[in-house]
Predict the structure.
Amino acid sequence: MADAGLFIGWGEVVRGRESEAAELFKETLGWYASLQDQGVIESFEPVFLEPHGGDLFGFILMRGDADKLAALRVSEEFVQLSTRIGLIVDKLGVVGADMGERLQRQVEYFTKQVGAFA
């Protein structure tokens, strides 16, 4: 089971780049599917958000092994794709996430630290 994730979030599509954004989104999902088939990632889930007045329009939550995700994040392919995406959407962000056992360790660490201040 995945112990880590990558949260890849984006804002509004740059006006006039909508067609490119749709094509690049399909290309990106295809690449992520191939990464899943190869065992580089465990899974991924794309999400579009309904209008809510905020800056986040959608995200993809990628799940997998922390070391594999760390290597993927700095790979030439991922960096190049992120650069392309960043030219088509506003406010692209890639954030590491703890899940599963890693999340439980973080909660235990946090609880321990809170106790140290009591």
